[in-house]
Specification:
The protein is built from eleven helices and 16 strands.
Length: 422
Amino acid sequence: MFARTKIRPTRCATAIVLASCTAALGANWLATLSKQPAGDFAELRSLRASYRFGWSGLTAATGEIHFIKPSNDRFELDGTGRTTGLVRALWKLDVNYRAIANAQTLAPIEVQQTENYRSKQIITHLSFTDGGVTRSRTEGQGTAIETKTRQFALPNLFDLHSAALYLRTQPLGQGSVYRLAVYPATNAYLATVTVSGREKISVRAGTYNAIRLDLQLKRIGKNLELQPHRKFRRGTIWVSDDPDRLIVRIEAQVFVGTVFAELQSVRFDNPKQASRELTDLQSVGLAEDACAGGKDRKTADAGRAISAMPPVFPSLTGQSPKVLFAIDKRAGKIPSLVRRFRRSVPDTAHTARGLSAPTQSHCAARPAELSQMACRRKILPVNCSDPLELMDKLAGFAADGQMAEQAAPELCFRSPRTVARA
């Protein structure tokens, strides 16, 4: 009896010591949370993007997001996702997601997530305040519906949307570490993000110069104690190293292997303000601008260089009638690459004119037609679907011009009188 009485105070003392240690540990990690305010990095522009999700190279789901700024003080993210292919036959899931954040502080305001499974529906609603979050979770289908409400008190909480907005505003220098308390849907986590380097990455949307971020997660318990995540081991996030800082790819090591999310396409709502250029499509973009009649720095330089070169075809002004007659006769016998190029391009205006006009011999060319002969050196504007094909044809056209210039002495014919004298 005496021994039991002696042990009880010992157990109480041990419990007090453990509780004190737990509180001290909780205070320690809370002190390591990032205190920096939202940076002055340019805010994300309104956009639409699509992603694919999967594991071990297998695509399991697709998703689309729409990011907008409906007012001066709010950012809004709307997203949809669904499983696809064989995965959908085994596990049907459709998700709708909506998140609202403060545009000045980037603090979360509200999150609404709806998950539709084959046999049930789960609706999760998060309402954030300065002191924490209130979660409402409704689960069931038909008449069997149950709603549970939970409050989690912790200042400076983020959701996924606001955490991504906050991180993209930071300097993200090499070796920088950011620690955020994040509440995605059902539990709180301590996210430790480390900038591990910069590298080039290729995805379906293009090739990007990217910032590599390493991610570690720990679960935050009811008493603010840190617990290891039972499913998540580590993760890597690639963010485009440009004024947009888009999430290009995410990889996570989990209990089933490697899962990923990858950017498939992105389109800004205001294309006139688009500033990002894909590294591997830059030359194609310049060719498209040239085809459409636009100009930029590189095409302008190319235009100046071309204008400085000596002309391939000498001017026909001032030539004698004999020379003009010989050139026109020669052109009628030997179709040049320019003629073949024009025949390969639909030209309804010239076709109609050719059908309606009477056929005339090249030997009887009138002086009024000599100006038309001089225009043969000009390239007519065409609609080209492939800029590279147009560049190939232009290169062949230039090569044919050089051949014609080299063969110019052969176009000088002697008159019949000179032949008779010989």
